[in-house]
Fold this protein.
Amino acid sequence: MSDIARSRPRVSGELEREQRLTLIQREAAALVPSEPRVAIASAERGYYELPLLKEPTWTWEIPLYLFIGGAAGTASVIAGIARLTGASPKLVRDARRISFAGAVLSPTLLISDLGRPERFLAMLRVFKPQSPMSMGVWILMGFSAATTAANVGAWLRERSMFPGLAALLEGGGDVAALAFGLPFASYTGVLIGATVIPVWNCNVALLPPHFLVSGLGASVGMLELAGNDAPALHWLGLGAAAVETAVGVEIEREKNPSQAPLKRGSSGWLIRLGGVLSGPIPLALRTASLFMKPKRAAKLRKYAAVSAVVGSAITRVAWIHAGQVSARQSRP
Amino acid sequence: MKTSAFLTDSTLCIGCKACEVACKEWNDVPPDFVEWRGLSYDNTWALSARTWRHVMFVEGIPEVGKGGNDPATMGWGLLSDVCKHCEVAGCLEACPTGALVRTEFESVYLQPDICNGCGYCVVSCPFGVVAKDADDGRAFKCTFCYDRQKADLQPACAKVCPTQSIQFGELDQLRERARERIGQLKDRGIHDASIWDPVDTGVAGTHAIFIVRGEQKAYNLPPNPEVPTTYLRSGWTSVAVAAGAMLVGTLIAFLGAGGRKL
């Protein structure tokens, strides 16, 4: 209740009435705004504080595509190198299956975003190096073909059918999937970095390694959760968590005002949540596991795996959301 | 080859929105979401998939004690905004289907039968012009009345403009006319008018130039528009470095710890 309302009951003498006037004067003076509260058109605020840029129109399919692409692309790198260095066949098979799942889900998600299947085909009529989206589609095509070949080859070999063809498909597919997997997991950084959205283009050099390593954390996590306990996976997971921690520190240290969506508001907290789950938490768990008995260590690594997979997915959602916030805040 | 252009002169605009109506009529553009927002007399807010000409109403801030015929009294700046048809166009570079093309009039044309609605042009336009239609799913923007230009007619908005605020013609001639107009205005005591023509920027000039009074930024006309293709080199270099590092790292991890149990 205001001072005026409280003092209302007794207004008798002239002195009291004068004091009451002073009270009203004080309260009214506080109502005068120091700066205009309504939106105005000015050099600082642009046209009535309406954003200069349009928001990204992408819905839930695209962040999920970025996450799956990262995991599938890096899984094919693990599959190729695991096979090359003679790691366990189960690890190679599981990694290949993750890539294949990604190769099936990715176009499905893109078609769902576009609305109709034939709209996806419109992208296959041109090859355009200056468009990261066009390059991305061709990388996805190459990746899908390669990982499908590797999986079909392995399937044929396991059933002892067409041995020559099986070896060719499996070997060639693995090498090609490795070659396409690396850009497939990282091109999405260029895709969103080479746009006019300030928070994205400020980070065009950071995003490709960030997404690649985030994808690596996720694919390592998926492979460990599928029951693979090769030490190489653990070291890869440790390395990915260390790099993600460094990326998080780098983001926190940024002082450029365009980077505000990475630190403030809902998008800032999503970035932090994704960052902590992919960086410090798995880093701490995996480091701790080095000093523990095997059974306890394996348990900690499982937790680290889950944290990295969830963190990788949240990271992509966070970056797309940050882009929307950034567009909303854009001024000329 | 003709280099068609628009010169939109805000000092002549009366805010009648005939350009918006003519554009919708000729191009058969469906109705937009229209609502008063309490921001002057602007009810379309911005260019969109269904608004290809947008009349802006920049209202001055009233000053206490100034009114009547005082020269410092509140005034309106009116400007019909439109796609800038950039010389180096972000949308055109980004389009992965080839739906966006450069026409023989040097304008940027979006072919709706090829557009797949990926939305990448939307985040590549430094002016927030091209937009995705939520119902249709594809992107739309000003066509610069490509069909009319082919038939040697001027764009619908320029034809209906009752004050010649929207002028259509050859780019260099319009630049000359804009300079003359600034001189005319100066003679009449209007010294705050300027030409917006971003030649030495990332877009390397546009095919829509404007004359405005006061702050250009108040009309959401950015002084230094950038085309996102300038970020490509840095992005792809980063991809190459990251990919190489990961390849080496994975090899080391498997060769170093491959068979051994932890």
Notes: Chain A has two domains: 61-194, 201-332.
